Amino acid sequence: MDNAAAEIRLEGIHVLVVDDAPDNRLLVSRFLKIAGATSESASDGPQGIDKAIAGDFDVILMDIQMPVMDGYEVVEKLRSMQFDRPIIALTAHAMKSERDRCLQSGFDAYLTKPIARNELLAMIRNAVEKFAGRRSNNTTQNEDIQPDPDGQRAPRAELQNQDRIRH
Prior knowledge:
Elements: H1 3-7, E1 14-18, H2 22-34, E2 38-42, H3 45-54, E3 59-63, H4 71-80, E4 87-91, H5 96-104, E5 109-112, E6 115-116, H6 117-137, H7 156-159, E7 164-165
Parallel strand pairs: 1-2, 1-3, 3-4, 4-5
Antiparallel strand pairs: 6-7
Helix pairs in contact: 3-4
């Protein structure tokens, strides 16, 4: 485990991981457990909606490409049900147009696969903090959540030896 990831602690944060790939769900759950968070998972969109509505999650990690119902459909449904917790899109598509589509569709943030552990953990922490700030300010606008407090992505060379999620 690298030092940057070791410093990011997520105690008390409960995360729903919605991804059709069992390996991705397992790896993300492992990252979260090491950071002190708890998590549950769903293997498709309808199951993700059910768990999101029934559970008390601080943040949802949502794969975009899933069978049955894709991430865009899931976030649209959740937002139409007044679900206001942060939802972070996870996608293999790194194009700016995909990022823009995610943010315009109701996701609070966007992270591309392969996912570096420190980026994921920092984005979750920032999403939870921004949500708490929105709640306390009674603001409902979506903000682009950056992967670290300085708003900078770690250089790729720094991330090469970290665990990564691929889709």
